[in-house]
Amino acid sequence: MTAIAILGGTGQQGSGLARRFAAAGARVIVGSRDAARARTTIATWNAAGAPIEAAANAAAVDQAEVTVIAVPFETVGALLAEVGTHFKEGSTVVDVTVPVTFVGRTMTMAEVPEGSAAEHIRARLPAGVQLAAAFKTVPARLLAAAGEPLDCDEFVCGDSDEARARAAELVRLLPRLRAVDVGPLSRARHIEHLTALAIAINRRHKIHDARFAVVGLP
Amino acid sequence: MTAIAILGGTGQQGSGLARRFAAAGARVIVGSRDAARARTTIATWNAAGAPIEAAANAAAVDQAEVTVIAVPFETVGALLAEVGTHFKEGSTVVDVTVPVTFVGRTMTMAEVPEGSAAEHIRARLPAGVQLAAAFKTVPARLLAAAGEPLDCDEFVCGDSDEARARAAELVRLLPRLRAVDVGPLSRARHIEHLTALAIAINRRHKIHDARFAVVGLP
């Protein structure tokens, strides 16, 4: 079984993914700046399935074939500067970040010179590592509500067919979530705008879990 | 009954809207640079419902309470320079354009200094006219296939509750299409990226009518 490191794995989105991957039987290593504190957090989860491990970020990357980046977007640069040399040649990174920031109740998308959070991360990864983006539009709150069905589509883009296939495998670990391949990594900018649209719908309609399904795709 | 002018009403998206609005019983005036040629085109449509009229763009605006802008994005500036003085104070404009361009098979989104096609249009409209955006994500081919059900959601944003309500009324003229209010006009940039995502999905999966439904919105 592939070992999955989740950096930022104690956050809402990361912990939701960690618990749902473990419930599907995957080996999950939650990466954190502080492994001991992560261990304490994990102990509070009523997680089903495989036991979830904890490690410092770099040590988590060392043990993984697939690394999920689930830290807040604004800390991604510092994280990759710290762990960049630990990625194995040929390993896959899955970016789940979105460059959305809140000032009070006002949501804005950060201006990312590379065009998207995913391309920002690509520019900071070693060449031998493949990058895909996924899990950007599934609501973090819903993801963290372990028992609740997701019932939506999740958009996957990436460097190569292989990178997208690996990310799609993670998506398929979660029941009732369909992976929709949308092509090269540059498509991430559209996906990230979709997250902003979901947040706008949540605000406007006083709901929490707006998400999307593609109609017309068999 | 509100009179609806559709500028660019002989194009694929405009003609689909014209025929579907007329089928719902609305009074529709197709605006074109050449009214006579538009009349010839309309005569070839097997349109159900109310008869569809044709007029030069400015004359169409003169007769309408709601004007739909369905010309190619790159011609919007010239169109509004021509017809801008014809909008009635308090009338509503509905923008359906998307700043997507194709060079061969390669799709790119035009860099729009205002942030979106809708905001680009806002900057070129008289202050007394209200603007909303809608029909940006429903596929043009599907829209033009008069008998085919749409079965998706359509995102509406705009200057004010009133502008959004007027655009949502147009959406509701089309059976099996739900209007989803996503807030202020600045949200148009997210909607336009969604159109680009739909095109990317069509390309990748060799389909034609990818579109979206919001999950989690009662």
Commentary on this structure:
Two copies of one chain form a homodimer. Chain A has helices at 12-23, 35-43, 57-62, 76-83, 117-122, 140-144, 161-173, 188-205, and strands at residues 3-7, 27-32, 52-56, 66-69, 92-95, 100-103, 106-109, 130-133, 152-158, 177-184, 211-215. The first copy, chain A, is of the alpha/beta class. In chain A, the strands form two sheets. In chain A, strands 3-2-1-4-5-8-9-10 form an eight-stranded mixed β-sheet. In chain A, strands 6-7 form a two-stranded antiparallel sheet. In chain A, strand 1, helix 1 (12-23) and strand 2 form a beta-alpha-beta unit. The interface between A and B is medium-sized, with 34 and 34 residues.
Question: What's the quick description here?
Answer:
Helix content of chain A is 35%, strand content 26%. In chain A, the strands form 2 sheets. Chain A has an 8-stranded mixed β-sheet. A two-stranded antiparallel ribbon of chain A has the order 6-7. The mean pLDDT of chain A is 95.
Provide key terms for this protein.
8-stranded mixed sheet, 26% strand, 11 strands, two-stranded antiparallel sheet, 8 helices, 218 residues, globular, alpha/beta, homodimer
Question: Helix and strand layout, with pairings?
Answer:
The structure is a homodimer of 218-residue chains.
Chain A: E1 3-7, H1 12-23, E2 27-32, H2 35-43, E3 52-56, H3 57-62, E4 66-69, H4 76-83, E5 92-95, E6 100-103, E7 106-109, H5 117-122, E8 130-133, H6 140-144, E9 152-158, H7 161-173, E10 177-184, H8 188-205, E11 211-215
Parallel strand pairs in A: 1-2, 1-4, 2-3, 4-5, 5-8, 9-10
Antiparallel strand pairs in A: 6-7, 8-9
